[in-house]
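Incident review: delayed structure delivery

Summary: a single-chain prediction request sat in the queue longer than the usual turnaround. Root cause was a stuck worker, restarted by the on-call engineer. No data loss occurred. The affected request and its eventual output are reproduced below so the record is complete for anyone auditing the incident later.

Affected input:
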Amino acid sequence: MATDLTPTPINPGSLPEPRGYSHGTLSGNTLHLGGQTALDREMRIVPGGIVEQFRQAFGNVLATLAEAGGIPQDLVSITIHLTDIPGYQAHGKEIGEVWRELAGPVYPAMAGIGTTALWQPEALIEILGVAVIPDERLVRPARG
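Output delivered after worker restart:
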C-alpha cells in the first residue's frame, strides 16, 4: 500500500505548464485531478462547441491520470462544471460517445453543476475528479 501521503504535484508535459496550480495532486494512492477546461497545449480553448470542449477537457483529465500511472477505471468521481446545461443535455448522446471512446464503459460517481462563468470566458466546461490508483501501477514523480 502506498503510504507516502505527502502531496505531490502531477503535471504532464503534454498539458500547458501550470503557473500557480497543479494539474493533479497525488497523496498516497489518491490522485486529485484539478479542474481542466478545453485548453490545448498552446493555452487556447478548442473551437467546435460543447462536444469538442468535453473531448479536450476530459482528455486533459485523463492525461494527468495517466501521468501518475492511472487508467480511466481508477476514476472514483468526476465533477463537471457547465456554463450551458441545456447545451450539454442537447448533446448528451455525442458526449457519451466521446466518454466511451476515451474511457470505455466505466462511469464513476458524477455531478454536473451549472455555473455562470469559468476562468477562460470562452470555456463552456470544466472537469475535475478523484482517482485511486493501485500500487502496481502508481507512478510517483521524483522530488526536487
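Verification: The two ends are 23 Å apart (CA to CA).
Action items: add queue-age alerting; document worker restart procedure.
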